[in-house]
Specification:
367 residues, mainly alpha, two-stranded antiparallel sheet, 2 strands
Length: 367
Amino acid sequence: MKGIQAPYLERLDHLRFYAAALVVLFHFFHSYAPDLRANNPLMSLIDEGHTGIGLFMVISGFVFTWIARERDVRYAPFLFSRFVRIYPLFIFAVFLQLMISTYNEERNYGFLALLSWLMPFRSETVPLSQYFVQLWTIWVEFQFYLLFPFLHAFALRYGQRYLLALVGLFILIRALVFLATGSVRFLAYETIFGRMDQFLIGMLAAHLYLRRPGMAADPLWLLAASAVAVTGIHVFSRYVGFTDLQHPLWIVWTTVEGLLWAGVLLSYLNARLALPRSAERVIAALGATSFSIYVMHNLVIAVLKRHVGLLPIGADTFTQAVWTGLLVALPAVVALAGVTYFLIERPFLGFRRRYVVDPAARPPGQG
């Protein structure tokens, strides 16, 4: 998405769309099928399509660091810009879910429930909200926003080793929780104590991208990074999987997942790919709507499951769910996302403010 702070990296929007598509296919597939643990690595990518969330987290850390570079981040304008970027559609979805819960599901939520959703902490009513249960990630994202200006300042002061040390700290914390309780899956998957690794890895990837422009430009690097990512996710799916709540691999899985996607991100941004210009623009336009895709997709999936069902393509439910997700669910979600993007998201983008300043521009006495 084009911003006002730094040059536009079109392929970041490509990656945003790929991440959103993975999450859509994951939720559609699992509305028909349980945890699969497939033999096919590409099927594992859909079976574990929640990994798109990890890609989103890496992109977040990357893009803010790419924008800030060696400059200072002004805290209030930064938070305001993030608020107007995500909260209009977020509030729309939250209010819609609470109204559905009140009038269609006879759970009479009031103003306090609305406030609990709008604060950047997980609301206790999330598990009951089937159409927008995925919004828990928005709270984690906003927690990143609250911390990023400090993380950026500390990285500039102490170097990237500070970010690496933080990754190590979060791994240690998860290990201690696992040893104390016997499970760390929810902490790793659904909270900042697991997702912070991915955000920090995105920041580190941005520093590498800025310092070594053009690295891994050969498309073979992208092929290799993609193969490693798909293989890693396949191994995770086969031997652990989304539903294994007690496996110790959750101590480090979000870190590993972040590294896998960082490799794909860096090689994709730099790869000398001969894609048609029209294709590049279409994918980027789809990526611009990725937040709407993410927010609205479960509502569309619920409608499709109730009124459309599966296309008779393939011999089993798994294959039919994949093809229906690709040919019906994803296009339908994209269509609705285009509407919500242009009517709800886009009008607020003009309110964003510049939040990066050159250190030389600091007011006297600050520094």
